[in-house]
Write a structure and sequence with these properties.
Keywords: Autocatalytic cleavage, Hydrolase, Protease. This protein is α+β, with helices and mostly antiparallel strands. The chain has a single domain, classed as Glutamine Phosphoribosylpyrophosphate, subunit 1, domain 1. A hairpin with a 5-residue loop joins strand 5 and strand 6.
Length: 311
């Protein structure tokens, strides 16, 4: 029996000082929650779903409750979950009125023969299996409404949006359980003022997330179009397969994305042996890792704080 590890992120972007403390508190709470699932014998898959649900439920983060609005003032949510043991995967994109898209993604994986459902079809599936539709105004914070009103008059490009403090980003989790199985989950509300129907990297297998027991699990965050172009999650694991550490694989892949398509982002990675890394090229990324009875966390570059995991 090996010791289980769980890592979470709350998005890589220019996190403003006024929400930085809530971002750190949120990832720490989600890591504790996911870690408690592992401690009680839950699988890596159960743990990443639980951790991401906690982040979706926290209005500080752009996923589930607290999501950003598209150009029409609507919430469209994306999520993915991958089981590294079997490569089973479930994803949803452009879903509306769902508080926990990560759980809907898991239902796609377990209750259908498909990998991804989108838009109306994903919502019809949610209704058919008893997911409760949440009114849009319950998912949108006052802060987001104000930000959307403030910035909808600007026709900024997606990259420009991302490089300002106007945008939130994705949440995610990776884990390895005591049986050595890995899993990942990623969830997002996308980029503020995005075109209707825009899908970023988050729900796309090999881009926003990937997990394979032979190499590890990854969840990505950052400029979605850039992550898609370099298939970031799979790129990181290909470096791991070639013998690189998870930290070096993350650093090299993010550097490549910056050089090749001028995109910034962040990643969390865990290997089947319990090696882990949280790496980013944006100004900040809120992250936390539960490993060997210690809770590690940070938000600024090179920051690695820690406290005892036992509450």
């Amino acid at each position: 029996m090996m010791s289980a590890v769980l890592v979470v992120h709350g998005g890589a972007w220019s996190i403003p000082d006024e929400i930085a403390p809530a971002s750190v508190d949120g990832v720490k709470a989600a890591a504790r929650h996911g870690s408690s699932v592992l401690k009680s014998g839950g699988s890596a898959l159960d743990a990443v779903e639980a951790a991401v649900r906690a982040l979706e439920d926290n209005p500080t983060f752009n996923a589930g409750c607290g999501a950003t609005l598209n150009i029409d003032g609507e919430v469209e949510l994306d999520a993915i979950i991958v089981d590294g043991r079997t490569l089973a995967s479930g994803a949803v994109s452009c879903v509306k009125n769902i508080a926990n898209p990560v759980s809907l993604a898991r239902a796609v994986m377990e209750k259908t023969s498909h990998v991804m459902l989108t838009g109306k079809g994903a919502n019809q599936f949610a209704e058919s299996i008893g997911f409760i539709a949440i009114p849009t105004d319950k998912l949108v914070t006052e802060y987001e409404k104000k930000q959307w009103e403030k910035h909808k008059k600007y026709l900024a490009g997606v990259m420009e949006e991302f490089n300002t403090k106007w945008t939130h980003d994705t949440v995610g989790a990776v884990a390895v359980d005591c049986a050595g199985n890995v899993a990942c989950a990623t969830s997002t509300g996308g980029i503020r003022n995005k075109m209707v129907g825009r899908v970023g990297d988050s729900p796309v297998i090999g881009c926003g997330g990937y997990a394979d027991n032979s190499s590890g699990a990854v969840s990505c965050t950052g400029h979605g179009e850039s992550i898609l172009k370099v298939t970031l999650a799979r790129l990181i694991l290909s470096h791991v397969e070639q013998g690189k550490s998870v930290a070096d694989a993350s650093r090299l892949s993010l550097q490549y994305m910056g050089d090749r398509v001028q995109g910034a982002g962040g990643t969390i990675v865990v290997s089947p042996s319990g090696q882990w890394a949280a790496t980013f090229t944006t100004e900040r990324m809120a992250w936390a890792a539960a490993a060997d009875g210690v809770l590690w966390f940070g938000i600024n570059p090179e920051e690695r704080l820690n406290e005892k995991l036992s509450q």
